Amino acid sequence: MKKCKLLFVFTLIFSLFFLLCVTSSFSATFNWKVSSNWAPDQLESRTVDHFVDLVNEKSNGEIKLTYYPSGQLGNSLAVLEMLQAGEIEVAVDTSNWLTRLTPELDVLSFPYAIRDNEHLARIQKSEWYIELKKKTYETKGINILADNGFRLPRHLYTKTKGIITPEDLKGVKLRMPDVKVQVETWGDLGADISIVPWQEVATSIATGLLDGADGPATSLYSMKFYEVAPHITLTGHTFDFVSILVSRIHWEKLPPELQQIMASCATEALVWFTDEVGKVWEADKAKMTQEGAKFYEIDKEVWMKKILEIAKKSEEKGQLPEGLFEKIQNM
To answer: CA dihedral in degrees (53, 40, 34, 105; nearest 10)?
Structure first.
């Protein structure tokens, strides 16, 4: 009788162990966190959702990505540090934050350095840019997995008036991201620059802390900026891009076949974003116009003349490598 009981217990333990092994074989091998600062209903955030779904599906559960939008894991600078330390695995953000890792990329955030997305795509294929991506991976520990999320340009939106010429910026309390080249350049143009978290921009304009800000076209409606700053000047001053970043520490733990799946899903998700962005803008612009927003055009040659003066001074001060602004424009 004792032997039967022992046999039963042994069989039960073995069965439980077997079930645990089988269950674990079906569980995700890599459970990774994905961070962004975008609100869930923004197109960029929906693109991250798409990327997460693609990876979870195509890896057959070997990678399980969990998405944390709205800066839940930290702001852009904090997240970059966490990526480098391996505290989180993936972040999706805009290219202007890459300058914190690789200062040579500052020039891409300089107003009117980039004419359009076709120009930007040529820059990304250049030896100069490819070497900087490699440097970012080798010295900063972050893999720029995909960077083909081409956005519409950034525009200015203000509370009380349109900004038609650079002179109109004088004394305007303007929000800029905590990116050195943007803070310095817009300050040189005459604006009174404040650094305010992205999620607080609308409130800061409504309360008078700010007069306005700049942002990608697709954020104006989804973030309700037009409600507090209905004067939208179509400056088109910067073309940045969405990039998917992976911690090198975790990337090198993935087997090659999973690296390939991650890379192809990242590219596919950003292609989807680029295809959608134009459709969203046309619909958003129509809705904002109907709700009272005013749109202003500018003479870009007037702005460009001023920007060239500032770029030259930046080179003289050593803030930009000599000749780099012209080199970028000629690519």
So the answer is: 110
